Amino acid sequence: MNQIQYAVPSLHFGENYGNRNISIRGVGSFLEQPGVLTSINGVVQPSDASSQVSLLDLARVEVLRGPQGTLYGRNANGGVVNFIAAAPTDELYGYLKVGFAEYEQTTAEIVVSGPITDRIGFRIAASHLDANEGWVENLEPGDNDLMLGEKSNARVIVTAELSDKFDAEIMLAHSEQSGRWTHWAMTDEHFDYGVMTGLPALDYSNDPAGVPILYTEEPHKVYMPGPVNTDRELDLYSLTLNWHSDNFSIKSITAQQEWKNAEDFAADSSSLGILQRSTVGENKSFSQEINISGTAGNLDWLVGGFYMDDERSDNFIIDFAVQALPFPLPFPYTPYVENQRPTYDNETTGVFADVTYSVSEDLRIGFGMRHTKEEKRSEHVGGFGVNSDAAGFIPFITNCAPDWPDLYVQEWEDSSNTVRASVEYDVGESGMTYVSYSEGFKSGGTNSGDCNPPWEPETIEATEIGYKAAFGNGQTTLRAAIFNYDYSDFQVLQVLNHVVPITNAGDAEIMGAELEINTAISDRWLINAAVTLLDSEYGSFLNSDGLRPGEPYQNEGNPLNNAPETSLILGAAYDIPLSSGGGVKLSLDASYRSRVYFREFGLKEDSQEAYTIVNFNANWESAERQWAARFYVTNLTDEEHITGMQGLQTTYGRQGFWAMPRQVGFELTRFFGSR
Q1: Domains of the chain, residue spans
Q2: 349, 611, 631, 675: least CB-packed within 10 angstroms?
Q3: Phi, psi angles (nearest 5°) of residue 605
């Protein structure tokens, strides 16, 4: 996903505080439910983290913009990213790829594909990354650097043609990550503990024990003492059935997924290590989708149903690893914050229908409807207290239940009816104009760290006018669009005290325009360019800022998070045929983003200034197509930028996630079998 965003200007991907965020045209954020839906071979990913793994051996990636609820099982406001795995081949085929890159990274990938019988095929893919040197330097003596470890993926796909009209696909996938894949670096120091807490002022160059507090705002550097560990694991099992008749088709996707995530790191980004954060979570998800589609005269139609039972549990702990508080404690124990959520169950059902009627050879009218219902149950308990080796956690203040460990239980239901309408008109033989209106819905949820009622569902009304065309026998393609998004009860992530709650920001609006062009200007040259322009703003939104205590701030008119005003891409590829019969393809791609805000207050300190990422690739292939090699440089100009940020008064300032610096690498591939 890190690289896809540099090919699609309206897509933004970043990480912050353990969350992974995908947004399209400024619409996104998982926030317990995807704002941009991701799927692997049609299997919906319910977790933000699991959506980033098992992405090997792909046939293609589809990025769809805007609400897509009348076409896909799980509703999503911002769009859809579909990862389509390569399918089994009719003849034996495979390859072995090895790679070496800076930061002592070695990679290996193997694919074997072919027939078992005339009607049954298989494809096995596996990959492994071993990163021995971290690209974020840990300045804390005796502690290893960050962003290193191992990542492994494996997937088996078996397809069977059960009859001339009936086929099946079984997919089994496993992914795991281990090591030190988390960092949280200081990006803007705000060392004023007394102002932020109202406590007496101290000399903040030292902690109460008289030890200097060290921190840095240098890129790709951090002070992070104590344990830093990342362990993630995903298992995915799916069965897809397709039945075709002369007039209609039926498709069924049944899937079971299990996701485990455990992370430990110090969240204060200083040598103090006062906030040792530990998160342990598990996510079990069962989903069933059925689509029936067909054609009747001038009418193309689709009806579908979707069901998902998503069960989660998590435990969030912040351990004040040292007594670095500006006041004496009357006990010899360590202050401790714990939020337990043993149950967070979301049962989702949806039914949808979409039709397109051809009024004439050139004119088509489309209409779709969807009904979504989500039933949720949350059980949680937490509080602030001390941790005793003998007695365990002794709470002083519980956040909901009066007596620890009594659970605070919330049950509620959200539902919505949404529609889509469109008009398409063909202009000549290779052009098409369209007007569309679509609605999106994202249900509400509850925070494990407070006792407030569930936050409200988010809805969006999206209007778009566009033009698509191909020229010169397909050598040039053009796409242009202007759009307007109207939000209601816009959901945003906050950081207050020791918790990361979600709240409704009221209304918001996004207006924008896109232009994309791809052209083969000769047999050797291919040029692509695209631009996305956004004008986004919050409506009336009164909200507190933990870094600026006092009365809540009015954020009306401020730009939305992860919605840069200007995004550009420009790429060129050049083919060089070799006398040996092989060939070399050189490509240079640049992606520009104007200033990106990560918090709602509209401050430059809460943003990443404009930056440009340049990637270079040189691909060689032998004449017999049995060998291939790739030399690459990502982030060629070594642009220093962050992809996510939060501000928290208890960690003294703003912390962010640094994107990877320049990396030079080389890959060698040996193919076998039929290509």
Answers
A1: 4-673
A2: 675
A3: -65, -20
Distance of CA 449 to the CA centre of its chain: 23
Task: For residue 196, give the H/E element and its range.
Answer: helix 193-197
In the structure encoding, which two tokens stand for residue 265, read together? 């790191």
CB atoms within 10 A of CB 428: 9
In the 8-state DSSP scheme, what is residue 498? T
Phi, psi of 44 (to 5 degrees): -70, 135
Query: For 97-155, what is each residue's pLDDT tens digit?
Result: 999 999 999 999 999 999 999 999 999 999 999 999 999 999 998 888 999 999 999 99
Characterize the bridge pairing of strands 58-65 and 27-28: unpaired
In this structure, are residues 613 and 9 in contact, taking their beta carbons and an 8 Å threshold?
A: no
Q: How many C-beta neighbours within 10 Å does residue 494 have?
A: 20
Q: List, in order, residues 6 or more apart from 248 with CB less than 8 Å away.
A: 292, 293, 294, 295
- What distance in Å separates the CA atoms of residue 569 and residue 60, rounded to the nearest whole number? 20
At 189, the pLDDT band (50, 70, 90 cuts) reads low
* Residue 570 three-state SS: strand
**Contacting residues for 280 by C-beta, under 8 A, at least 6 apart:** 261, 262, 314, 315
Task: Identify the three-state secondary structure at position 193.
Answer: helix
Paired with 381 in beta bridges are 340
- The single-letter code of the amino acid at 600 is E
The Cα–Cα gap between 227 and 266 comes to: 8
What is the 3-state secondary structure of 429-475?
Answer: CCEEEEEEEEEEEECCECCCCCCCCCECCEEEEEEEEEEEEEECCCC
Helix (H, G, I), strand (E, B) or coil at 649: helix
Nearest to 302 by CA among 353, 251, 356: 353
332: exposed, middle or buried (Cβ count in 10 Å: 0-12, 13-18, 19+): exposed
C-alpha 381/C-alpha 404 separation (Å) is 7
State how far the Cα of 459 lies from the Cα of 28, in Å rounded to an integer.
Answer: 12
CB 32 within 8 A of CB 454: no
Query: Judging by beta carbons within 10 Å of its beta carbon (0-12, 13-18, 19+), is residue 523 exposed, middle or buried?
Result: exposed
Amino acid letter, 154: A
Cα separation, 265 vs 280, in Å, equals 12
Please compute Rg for the chain using Cα positions.
26
135 phi, psi to nearest 5 deg: -100, 10
pTM for the complete prediction?
A: 0.91
Beta bridge partners of 527: 519, 572
Tell me the CB-side half-sphere exposure of residue 398, using CA atoms within 13 A.
15
Q: How far apart are CA 500 and CA 655, in angstroms?
A: 14
* Cα gap 602→297, rounded to integer Å: 54
Closest CA to 408 of 457, 454, 448: 448
3-state secondary structure 345-389: EEEEEEEEEEEEEECCCCEEEEEEEEEEEEEEEEEEEEEEEEEEC
By residue count, the chain amounts to 675
With respect to CATH, is domain 4-673 assigned 3.30.559.10?
Answer: no
**Bridging pattern class, strands 491-493 and 502-504:** antiparallel
* DSSP codes of every residue in 204-236: TTB-TTSPBP----STTEE---S--EEEEEEEE
